[in-house]
């Protein structure tokens, strides 16, 4: 009996409480079933039974409508003919286009687009021309989420922008949609940070009816727009059932969708096994320097030390004169704490490491600092660079506590995936350490930094209890 219950517990952990489906080939994507089993503590957040059943139904839909099927073929024929066939309503799609922005931007917008697809019974297909398939395994069984390279609009989608005549916001601006308009076979949805008020009308309930009748939506976004989907009344009803714990949307969906490929997984596990597995506790530190020029700055270093000591994430140093062995003898704690640093700049971890090797900590804790990569400059779409970035994000997500940089989507993904409420380093002004240096986040959710504050959702943003303005960023909202 004992054996059986532990077996079922193992399978429960392996499938993250039913979030994942059993039966994928394990060798071709080792991370899928081993992350939660071997490298993470069980998440305190369980997916709801409704979310689990919704994902199983989604997987069936994706298999029926995905690339290579008759249904996909028929649906793409509508694009060639540029009209919607009334007989072919069964499969509708969201095409997520990889924009020029970094991995964090891509991941948060892909999660939002997938959530939109779930809510509207569409199938998500991802643009594979960038290195997405070097980073992630296929998330859905017996099918593919990759948009085929011969997709009829492939030659045009890079040029879609606000001016495009089938850009939804532009159609609204031109009054090109009324109750008699026949829906086109595709629409371009512009949800990038530079979008206009007309583009933000996408988030209005009344506008969703027309959009629903269009089989193909091509989306460009670099935002985490999930919070605004909660403010569309008909979506909210479904969302409350899917996510009774409202601040778990990114956490569950990112764990469901993103499984690093074996190449990335080797990077993650080799770092983990060599440097983190022996530690009693791991602190993740994500240091993104947005100033130009970027690089190593003393005030940023001071801010990191100030934040981590003030929040008791790292110990103070022992008073001058006491040696390592004296401190070790007089204090009981022999804890080993590993600090995992992710930054483009290797100097931060070098300094931190030096600090703790020259003088012992006042608590006797041993502090070991480790930084797997130090790429110096962003090189999005260089395969190895992006793989290292994903490995860093994943490693950060395995820590017990995490400190991230304000408004960095790279940090958002790490803490959301990890189920961690981060401490956020405020953005320094005038090269000074902000006071206070950091703040505890309201929730583990990413911030929607360009929320539609003034349109149809204005009132709801103010009155919905689970939507709050982001920490130190009033233009943004987040689920709490
Ligand atoms: P954001 O700009 O901080 O919102 O995050 P993005 O992920 O969208 O873009 C930053 C890009 O710079 C990343 O995708 C990486 O390519 C690179 N980068 C930034 N910080 C790090 C880091 O700590 N480690 C690694 N490996 N790459 C980083």
UniProtKB/TrEMBL annotation:
Where does the UniProt entry say this protein principally localizes?
Golgi
A Gene Ontology CC term for this entry?
Golgi cisterna membrane
Keywords, sorted A to Z: Cell wall biogenesis/degradation, Glycoprotein, Glycosyltransferase, Golgi apparatus, Membrane, Transferase, Transmembrane, Transmembrane helix
Query: Which Pfam family is one of this chain's hits?
Result: XG_FTase
Identify the InterPro entries for this entry.
Answer: XG_FTase
Topology versus the membrane: Single-pass type II membrane protein
Task: Report the EC code(s) recorded for this entry.
Answer: 2.4.1.-
Q: Which GO terms describe its molecular function?
A: galactoside 2-alpha-L-fucosyltransferase activity
Q: Where in the cell is it found?
A: Golgi apparatus, Golgi stack membrane
Which Gene3D superfamilies does this entry report, sorted A to Z? 3.40.50.11340, 3.40.50.11350
Question: Which Gene Ontology BP terms does the record give?
Answer: cell wall biogenesis; cell wall organization; xyloglucan biosynthetic process
Keyword presence, Ligase: no
Its job: May be involved in cell wall biosynthesis.
Q: Which family does it belong to?
A: Belongs to the glycosyltransferase 37 family.
State the name under which the record lists this protein: Fucosyltransferase
């Amino acid at each position: 009996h004992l054996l059986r219950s532990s077996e079922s517990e193992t399978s429960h952990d392996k499938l993250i409480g039913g979030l994942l489906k059993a039966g994928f080939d394990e060798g071709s994507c080792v991370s899928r079933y081993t992350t939660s089993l071997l490298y993470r503590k069980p998440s305190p957040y369980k997916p709801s039974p409704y979310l689990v059943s919704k994902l199983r139904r989604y997987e069936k839909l994706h298999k029926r409508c995905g690339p290579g099927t008759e249904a996909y073929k028929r649906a793409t024929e509508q694009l060639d003919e540029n009209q919607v066939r009334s007989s072919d309503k069964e499969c509708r799609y969201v095409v997520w286009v990889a924009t020029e922005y970094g991995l964090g931007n891509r991941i948060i917008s892909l999660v939002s687009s997938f959530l939109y697809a779930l809510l509207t019974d569409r199938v998500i297909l991802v643009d594979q021309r960038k290195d997405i398939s070097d980073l992630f395994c296929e998330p859905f069984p017996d099918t593919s989420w990759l948009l085929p390279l011969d997709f009829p609009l492939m030659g045009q989608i890079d040029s879609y922008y606000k001016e495009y005549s089938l850009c939804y916001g532009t159609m609204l601006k031109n009054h090109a949609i009324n109750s008699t308009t026949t829906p086109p076979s595709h629409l371009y949805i512009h949800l990038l940070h530079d979008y206009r008020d007309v583009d933000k009308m996408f988030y209005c309930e009344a506008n969703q009816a027309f959009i629903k009748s269009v089989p193909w939506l091509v989306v460009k976004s670099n935002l985490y727009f999930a919070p605004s989907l909660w403010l569309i009344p008909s979506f909210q009803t479904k969302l409350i059932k899917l996510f009774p714990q409202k601040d778990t949307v990114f956490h569950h969906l990112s764990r469901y969708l993103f499984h690093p490929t074996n190449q990335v997984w080797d990077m993650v596990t080799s770092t983990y096994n060599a440097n983190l597995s022996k530690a009693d506790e791991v602190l993740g530190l994500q240091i993104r320097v947005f100033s130009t020029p970027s690089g190593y700055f003393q005030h940023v270093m001071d801010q990191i030390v100030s934040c981590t000591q003030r929040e008791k994430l790292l110990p103070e140093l022992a008073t001058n004169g006491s040696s390592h062995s004296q401190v070790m003898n007089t204090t009981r704690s022999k804890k080993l704490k590993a600090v995992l640093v992710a930054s483009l700049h290797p100097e931060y971890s070098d300094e931190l490491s030096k600090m703790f090797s020259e003088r012992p900590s006042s608590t006797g804790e041993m502090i070991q600092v480790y930084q797997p990569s130090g790429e110096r400059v962003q090189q999005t779409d260089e395969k190895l660079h992006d793989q290292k970035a994903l490995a860093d994000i994943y490693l950060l997500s395995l820590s017990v506590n995490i400190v991230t940089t304000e408004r960095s989507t790279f940090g958002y993904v790490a803490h959301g995936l990890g189920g961690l409420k981060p401490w956020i380093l405020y953005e320094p002004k005038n090269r000074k350490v902000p006071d206070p240096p950091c703040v505890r986040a309201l929730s583990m959710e990413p911030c929607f930094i360009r929320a539609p504050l003034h349109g149809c959702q204005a009132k709801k943003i103010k009155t919905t209890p689970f939507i709050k303005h982001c920490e130190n960023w009033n233009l943004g909202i987040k689920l709490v």
